[in-house]
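User: Structure with zinc ion, tokens only please.
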Amino acid sequence: MPPTATLDDIKAHQRKVEKDKITPDNLPPCPRCKVESGFFKIHAYRERRFLVIIEMLIQAAFCTLVRFVCPGCGKTFTHYPDFAIPHKHYTRQSMVEFSANYLEADDMTYQKAVMLENEVPGYPNSDRTLAASTIHRWITTLGRFTQTCRTALILLLQENPASSICRDLARLIIPKRKYKTDQRRKHLIGCRQLLIIEAFFQATFKTSIFTKLATHCAFS
Ligand SMILES: [Zn+2]
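Assistant:
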């Protein structure tokens, strides 16, 4: 099964947009003037192209993202559904699954990590396939969610002070062959931490850190 069963999620989001069911409540208050997000007004609808992998083919799926505006100062905010990461066309689920593929086996390479059942997903009517360098970039993106991870960890420890999560995070080691620079090592560790924290978060709160918590931490 490819790691993006999210075409239904995208369609469900689109239906919510069309029925005017997207509310700004999940957004944090305006950082400029502290107006609560419940007072935000709809500012614009933007069509976004997402990429999902269906039967080894990379397919485009379109849906609308809603932008809200703060009535106090005019600052605008995008509402992201839980499958969307800012500036990324692939869904969060694909990014997470392929990154985990690479990170969770010590002998894994990027060339192998793009494969699903010994095949690399490709674009329809083209020789182009999912690139190994794309996984490398996803790990960079996911490895930078420092504030989100920190906030999630605080919430987890408040809920369960005896949790093993700190031990699990401290035990992480990235094989030396996977990085040449200290910055890369930090992104690899950061991404693995995110995956572990997300699993604990799901188990504890029955919800993902995507996207309410990540939004509150400005996807950082
Ligand atoms: Zn404002």
